[in-house]
Write a structure and sequence with these properties.
Amidase signature (AS) enzymes, Amidase_dom, Amidase_CS, 13 strands, glutaminyl-tRNA synthase (glutamine-hydrolyzing) activity, EC 6.3.5.7, ATP binding, eleven-stranded mixed sheet, alpha/beta
Length: 492
């Protein structure tokens, strides 16, 4: 096995035993990125010099005996995490030149643990999408089939882990943006409880549902990363002061007697029958391992899609208001676009500079024209939903139904310990297959409810259909990631 193909556990053992160095491990990952990224377009920025310096520092910690489990482990971060001194674009032209002045809290924690940042990954612009086709810097391709999407919005991170560009990666999940691409790429993706990890320093999409989390090769690896990035943060008052459990110890327990709920609303007419069969096989395997399978109902699952797409655009329209061409680097600076080789191309310029017009509205129009089509769509939808005369009819009503969805989950979890569902209704689709925005929004139909309720959920591989991975989703009670990973660990 090549070094870049190792899991975190395998890499940590090799590093501490002196079988290879952190520098050698980082170089193996960087070499794979250079070899294959032109085809996949998973990585937008490579931090080779900085990564090798961090790897050398990690080797010193390992030699001194002060290494932690993530010391020397190379990873990639979704390009909506702020990284000090490194370009952070959110895959948008409007931030093409933005250099973050500080690290996101999650990045800071990983630096303290000694993990090695290799670079930043592609995503749907501002995390708006389920295919990574909405990136201003070109789509990412699925490593299993280059004609298919990797899912989204954390498609670059999921594709990078599946392609062994790194040992693990970071994503963000608002309505399924970690779990969806994890399912499409055949890797593990964990969305922790809302408030389990800090959102500080992550470019905001939907502030009431955004959740940072890991994408990894195994559930055990995801657990190790989550343990490091969790915790209360004084810079993010939505983080909870709830200590993380010993996930590794929790995963060591068997699942005999664990009550697993199966909601019939998640097995829809029209979904891929082969995908449904694989998930049902996974459910049966849990029964054979001692779990108790209980049929349950979550009737307002059908309402999650319209509720999410009222609340999310409303918060998006507010959060994107800060990008006015004044408070961030102006698009009149060299726009870092992508050329055919996937490298920065500073030759293309936008001339909508602040000094070229005295009219503020004209400035806004020129600079905000750099938003992509999906960002514009969500801004308009959200602004409409929040406008006078429509706020009560749309946004307020959506929040009321959201409360009902939360209450339904709470009732269900009085009967069961976890809930198991498909992650997606189908395997990864071909590029351009979902041009209708509504059809694209349906991609997250199985992941939206748990996001609206702020619950922990994980996607794990559970089979292959037409040579493409299938994902199975496990949802748990708030702050019970340990139970979720205990069950998920029986698959990956």
């Amino acid at each position: 096995m090549k070094l870049n193909e190792l899991t975190i556990k395998q890499a940590y053992e090799g590093l501490t035993k002196g079988e290879f160095t952190a520098v050698e491990l980082a170089k193996a990952c960087l070499a794979e990125i250079k070899k294959r990224n032109q085809a996949l377009n998973a990585v937008l920025t490579i931090c080779e010099e900085e990564a090798l310096a961090e790897a050398k520092a990690a080797d010193k910690r390992i030699k001194a005996g002060t290494a932690k489990e993530l010391t020397g482990i190379p990873y990639l971060a979704k390009d909506n995490y702020l990284t000090k001194g490194v370009r952070t674009t959110a895959a948008s032209k409007i931030l093409a030149n933005y250099i973050a002045p500080y690290d996101a809290t999650v990045i800071k924690k990983l630096r303290q643990a000694g993990a090695v940042l290799l670079g930043k990954t592609n995503l749907d612009e501002f995390a708006h999408g389920s295919s990574t086709e909405n990136s201003a810097f070109g789509p990412t391709k699925n490593p299993h089939d280059l004609t298919r999407v990797p899912g989204g919005s954390s498609g670059g991170s999921a594709a990078a882990v599946a392609a062994n560009f790194c040992i693990f990666a970071l994503g963000t999940d608002t309505g399924g943006s970690i779990r969806h691409p994890a399912a499409f790429c055949g890797v593990v993706g964990l969305k922790p409880t809302y408030g389990r990890a800090s959102r500080f320093g992550i470019i905001a999409m939907t502030s009431s549902t955004d959740a940072p989390g890991p994408i990894a090769k195994t559930v055990a690896d995801a657990a190790m990363v989550q343990a490091v990035i969790s915790g209360r943060d004084q810079n993010d008052f939505t983080t909870a002061d709830v200590p993380a459990v010993d996930y590794e110890k929790e995963m060591g327990k068997n699942i005999k007697g664990v009550k697993v709920g199966v909601p019939h609303e998640y097995f829809l007419a029209g979904m891929n029958k082969a995908v449904e069969d694989k998930v049902k096989e996974a459910i049966e395997s849990l029964r054979q391992k001692g779990a108790e399978i209980i049929n349950i109902s979550l009737p307002h699952t059908k309402s999650a899609l319209p509720v999410y797409y009222i609340i999310t655009p409303s918060e998006v329209s507010s959060n994107l208001g800060r990008y006015d061409g004044i408070r961030y680097p102006l698009p009149s600076d060299p726009a870092v676009l992508r050329d055919g080789a996937g490298t920065p191309n500073p030759s293309s310029r936008n001339t909508a500079g602040r000094g070229e017009t005295a009219d503020l509205m004209e400035l806004y129009k020129k600079n905000r024209a750099l938003f992509g089509a999906e960002a514009k769509r969500r801004i308009m939808l959200g602004t409409y939903a929040l406008s006078a005369g429509y706020y009560d009819a749309y946004y307020l009503q959506a929040q009321k139904v959201r409360t009902i969805i939360i209450e339904e989950f709470e009732a269900a979890f009085k009967e069961v310990d976890v809930i198991i569902t498909p992650t997606t209704p189908d395997i990864a689709f071909k590029f351009g297959a979902n041009k209708d925005p509504l059809k694209m929004y349906l991609e997250d139909i199985f992941t939206l409810s748990s996001s609206l309720a702020g619950l922990p959920a994980i996607s794990v591989p559970c089979g292959i259909v037409d040579k493409m991975p299938v994902g199975c989703q496990i949802i748990g009670r708030k702050f019970e990631e340990g139970m979720v990973m205990r069950v998920a660990g029986r698959f990956a």
